[in-house]
Each structure stands twice: as structure tokens, then as C-alpha cells.
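Hi there, hope your week has been kind to you so far. Would you mind checking whether the C-alpha cells look sensible for this chain? I owe you a coffee for this, so here goes:
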Amino acid sequence: MVFRKAEYAGSWYKRNGLAEALERYFLDKNFGPGEKPKTLNLESRTIIGGVSPHAGHEYSGPCAAHTYFNLFNEKIPDTVIILGTDHRGYRKIALFEDGEWETPLGNLKVDNELSKKILENSKKIISDSSAFLIGEHNIEIQLPFIKYCAKEKDLKIIPIKITPRINFDVMDEISSDIANALKSTEKDVVVVASSDMSHEYVHSEGQLKKFKEIDQAVINGFERLDPKETLNAALRTSVCGPQTITTLILIGKKWVNASKGKLLKYYTSSEKTGTFDYCVGYFSGIIVK
């Protein structure tokens, strides 16, 4: 069993006082949901997945809080699949098959039963725990939100790293592999795509407006659950997870015939800090049956 340390605790997000910081992101009325996460304990769910940003929590945390507020609102899932991207040149599609990932709020175990089903279904997805041990932040950033919202439940995760160096046909194939595994389980599962939006220098209100229009084209495709429109729009930007968002849409359509995507929150780092400089867009959205 592989143990992954919380490498970015204390830098990209807090190690000490993390629960208090997460509560602050949820209670943020300007950028966050404005209330603490709660669970209705319903028998079934309609919200099956979402997009969540992965920048430092102080910037993107309130935006991510929208995604997790909604994913956990109907019921606390048994397993969360996190579709992560790669920033370090990894050229495969890897799954963390068995182990634990540390968070300052308690460790999260990998759902090795469901991960094996995915691997059995797929010719493209491989088991490679080493792919998650090389200093990549974008999946780890999601885990404190998952652990915080899970409360006392022994929720499990399945991290999947998807190289950006793939085409639509491969996304289509792996989404079928994952969707088929999900159809074969009775577990309550949600799927999260980890991605920030555009990354550009912005020096004026006019540039910021243009920046947001470019990101909005990606969001429009997501809301229509049109995977090709979303991917094509994202590839014209510096969005860092075109493949994770597109794969999420494809999974939703194949798994439960999802009907729509919904924008929850979008803002930029310039709006969060009140300054013009290097600007990143943050988007939270959900997929509904």
C-alpha cells in the first residue's frame, strides 16, 4: 500500500488551522457559497460531478467551496473520483490503485475495489502510484475539501491523472471505461474535474473583460454538456485541464445520461485580490442528471 504525504500543506493551503480556513471559504458571501456545507441525507442524488479549481486555497478556495457544497448537499458520497491534470511532462493516464493520501484533517483511503474495476475495463488507464508522488499539486488541493465535507464518514477517493497530451478519441475511450465501472457498482460516487481556467497577465479593465469572455466560452460548452465545444474552447485558452473537464462531461453523459451542466461561480484572481497582474480564472460547476 502506497502512502502519499500532504506535500503542499503549509504552502498551497494551511496545515495548521485548515478547518477554520475551509469554514471561512464556505462562509465567504462574496466569492463563496455564504454558508457552511450541510447534508440532506437523501436516498438518491441528482448531482453526479463537478469542476473545481486547484490554485492556492486563499485564491481559489471560495470557488471550490461552491462545488463541494453542492456535491455533498444531497448526501455524502461513498467515493470521490478526482480527475487531475499534469504539469510535469507525464504522458500516460494513471490511476492511484491502492493506498492512502494524507491530509491535515485525516487521511483519505483509495477505493481499491472500484479502482480495480476501472483498470479491468480499460486499455488506456494504468495503475501507477509513482505518478502521484512527483510533486503534483492539482489533486491534493481538492482533498481537504473532500475530507472536511465528509465529516465522520469513511469516504474513499480514486485519483486519476490524465495527461494533457491526448486527443478527444482517447478522452472518449477512458470516459467509457470509467462510466462502465460506475454502472457496475452500487456505491454512491461523484466525479470531480480539477482545473483552473485561463492564465494571463491582465493590466486593465478592458483586458480583464476579454479574459473573462474567453473563459466564458468554455463555461458555455460545459453548461450545454457539449464535450467537443468545451474542449475546442478550452484549447484556445490557457485552461490547464481541458482534458479533465471534457472527460467529466463524457462520463456524465455515458454514466447517467446527464442532462445539463450548471455554473455555480466564476471569478478571477484579479477580482479576488483587487489588483491587476498575473491573472487566473476560477470556475466551479456541477453536472446534473
Remarks:
- The chain has a mean pLDDT of 97.
- The chain has one domain: 2-288.
- The chain has nine helices and twelve strands.
